[in-house]
Amino acid sequence: MEEYLLKVLAIAVCVLLFGFAIFIHEFGHFLVAKLLGMRVDVFSIGFGQAIWKKKIGDCEYRVAWIPLGGYVSIPSVDPEGTKQLQGTADAAAPQVDAAPWKRILVGVAGPMGNFVLAVALAFALAAVPGAKFGELSAEVGMVPDEGPAFEAGVKAGDVVLSIDGNPVSNWGAVLNETQLAGGRTVPMVVRRGAEEVTLSVTPARDDVTGGYYLLMFATTNGVNAAQWMTVRDPLKQLAWDAGQIFRVLKALVTPKESAAAANALGGVETIGTVLYKQVRKDKWDAVGFLRFLNVNLGMLNLLPIPVLDGGLILFALIELLFRRKLNEKFVKCVTVFFMVLLVASMAFLIVRGTVRIVRMNIAQKTMRAKAADTNAVDAASAAKPEGGK
Q1: Would the pTM count as exceeding 0.70?
Q2: Dihedral sign (CA 48, 49, 55, 61)
Q3: Quick check: 322 and 243 in contact, CB under 8 A?
Q4: Is residue 294 classed as helix, strand or coil in its secondary structure?
Q5: Per-residue DSSP letters for 244-274?
Q6: What single DSSP character describes residue 39?
Q7: pLDDT, tens only, 111-130
Q8: Quick check: 176 and 249 in contact, CB under 8 A?
């Protein structure tokens, strides 16, 4: 019963933390819109049917049942297509567009909210003595006598310098570049003693997780921090966060890496799973993951894609530069298209991620069952009298 209550409490904490990241983002839009004198119709955490709602003044505040994000409906900023999909369009209300510079400020305000929260969390964690920081070096500690690393000639004590031409400086980067290499045979440069050696490695695919691996292990040197808790210096830590996200985005638009990068992407279920594990394991690691998540949300929302904040900013910049309003039907069609594409992509990632989690749980249960059977056989053998029946 106690374990069940702990699980429920951990899930509730995860929902609150993720919801807070969404709230901060939408509050940024809301606050700047209000400061610029714009009308705000809806402030929603989540999409779809409202679980709770309350109207205060001209704005309706909602908590909706699909916790995949949120939105602020601002008639003078939102594209018509987005408002229709959210069910917030009001044909009777005046819908005069705000000046482009105002729309840019409102669009930037959401991601800035996430960045501000990330900075605050980074500085707060730096001041917590109990928060664990550190990163594994790129030195190989052990290579089992099987697997891709052994076959390529990797040896314990080698220091990985680059994979597929991409420099690495820590073990997290080694794992990332291995995943992005996919199943391709790529060069890996290692420092072995005083010389540099170039090896050809072909990562193998794990049938359970779908990820790629080389089957080699790092030299730990006592480091037991989470992989997103690399350095106590808050500015260096934030730079690391941004660098990791930029690397994945770069891989997604690099032809030879795009398939492997897309395979590595996770949806809300992945975020929830990682957050849940960290909440149960170490509260400061959970806060660190929330910091990393906010940097992620801020950067992704600035991408120049319609329905994201970057798309709104792009439309406003075009209007500002060419001094003419974009065709309303064009904006609506493009927005609806990308909204459908975004929802479909999120649904795909959730289904794929859920299948992976189920497979991993089944595999873990199978391994535990085999271990229990082995222990039972060993115990029976130990209890049997020597030479007896």
Answers
A1: yes
A2: negative
A3: no
A4: helix
A5: HHHHHHHHHTSHHHHHHHHHH---HHHHHHH
A6: -
A7: 999 999 999 999 999 999 99
A8: no
